[in-house]
Structure formats: structure tokens, C-alpha cells
């Protein structure tokens, strides 16, 4: 699969302290899968190689104002867990992008992510189209939630979507593997970080 770095972006979903770092609200829930995939080391290596090749790096953090007034007052499912865990609050340590992947000059941070699909409430699609991006490679959290939701919409929008199999994690190995095996191949081309980097 030929990859033109000038038309390619890596979308890093929620590499924030509440997931990635010890003491984060959801770190304990994802730590096992993170360690099994070695996702942080894989992501760091890939991002460094991609920047050097001219690939656009896009960070997609999720954040909420204190009190979570941007979402329903009766959240359920995953967003209830966010509220109950007091996670991803703007201005707090848990919502910050982890230091190892902090945005660098030339990176883009999308604004407005409040739910699962990165396209839904942000300017991601506008940014990609304005830059002539046609290929997106996705990594982050959770394998079967925000990564999968963003993958599906990217596919529907006509992007060439690559899912980075060893740069994602979920709250259980079973959920992670199910998404990789059954869902990712339907809406993307799954690749390891190393395989993807070898394409540019």
C-alpha cells in the first residue's frame, strides 16, 4: 500500500494522563492491554519516524469543563464512567496529553472532542480536507470505543483508514482482540506501527 506522507495524518486519540499515566482515572483499567501491546513505545517510535517523513501528527484529546455541562445531565454507558471518575477535566493533570507525546511544532490539536467519534464534535474533517489528507492512521483509546468509532466514520467519509493494531488498548484483552479480529478489517487496513512506518 503506497503511502504519500504529504497526504497522510496520524490521529492520536486520547493519549492523556487519565489513560496513560499511573494515577490516571482509567489507567488501571487499560494498563494490562497497554503493556501487552507495548503501545506507548510503538507510538513514540512511529510518531518520530512519521514527523521526520513529513506525515501530519494530529492529537485528539477529550476534555470537559468542570461539571460536564457539555453533555447530558443523565449520562450512561462510557460517558457515565467518565463523569463518575471525574476524568478528562479541562486544565487538570488527567486531561493533559502525556509528556512523551506532547504536541510539537507543526502538530495539530483538534478541539471539541466530547464523545466517542473524533469526527462528530471536532474540526477534524475540516482540517484533513483543507490539508489534502486522504489517508489517516489511528491509534489510542479505546480500541473498541473511540478508535473504532473514528475508524468507521473515516471509512464512511472516504478516507483510506489504517488502524494501528499495536498502538491501541481497551479495558480488557477480550474486547481489544474482538475489535482487532472482527471490526477493524471491515472498515480499515489494520497494520502494526512498524509495518505502517515502512510504507513511507
Automatic annotation (TrEMBL):
It comes from the Bacteria. It comes from Dactylosporangium darangshiense. It holds the Pfam family Isochorismatase. Keywords: Hydrolase. Residues 8-194 form the Isochorismatase-like domain. This is Cysteine hydrolase. SUPFAM superfamilies: Isochorismatase-like hydrolases (SSF52499). Gene3D superfamilies: Isochorismatase-like. PANTHER family: ISOCHORISMATASE-LIKE DOMAIN-CONTAINING PROTEIN (PTHR43540:SF16), PEROXYUREIDOACRYLATE/UREIDOACRYLATE AMIDOHYDROLASE-RELATED (PTHR43540). The keyword Glycosyltransferase does not apply. One of its GO terms (molecular function) is hydrolase activity.
Amino acid at each position: 500500500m503506497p503511502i504519500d506522507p504529504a497526504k497522510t495524518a496520524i490521529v492520536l486519540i486520547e493519549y492523556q494522563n487519565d489513560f496513560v499515566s499511573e494515577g490516571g482515572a482509567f489507567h488501571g483499567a487499560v494498563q494490562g492491554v497497554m503493556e501487552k501491546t507495548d503501545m506507548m513505545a510503538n507510538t513514540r517510535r512511529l510518531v518520530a519516524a512519521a514527523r521526520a517523513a513529513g506525515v501530519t501528527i494530529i492529537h485528539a484529546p477529550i476534555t470537559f469543563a468542570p461539571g460536564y455541562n457539555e453533555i447530558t445531565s443523565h449520562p450512561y454507558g462510557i460517558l457515565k464512567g467518565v463523569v463518575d471518575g471525574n476524568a478528562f477535566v479541562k486544565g487538570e493533570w488527567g486531561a493533559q496529553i502525556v509528556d512523551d507525546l506532547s504536541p510539537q511544532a507543526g502538530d495539530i490539536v483538534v478541539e471539541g472532542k466530547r464523545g466517542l467519534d473524533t469526527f462528530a464534535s471536532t474540526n477534524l474533517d475540516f482540517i484533513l480536507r483543507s490539508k489534502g489528507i486522504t489517508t489517516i492512521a489511528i491509534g489510542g483509546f479505546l480500541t473498541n470505543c473511540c478508535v473504532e468509532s473514528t475508524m468507521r466514520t473515516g471509512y464512511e467519509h472516504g478516507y483510506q483508514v489504517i488502524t494501528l493494531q499495536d498502538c491501541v488498548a481497551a479495558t480488557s484483552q477480550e474486547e481489544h482482540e474482538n475489535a482487532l479480529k472482527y471490526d477493524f478489517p471491515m472498515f480499515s487496513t489494520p497494520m502494526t506501527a512498524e509495518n505502517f512506518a515502512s510504507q513511507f
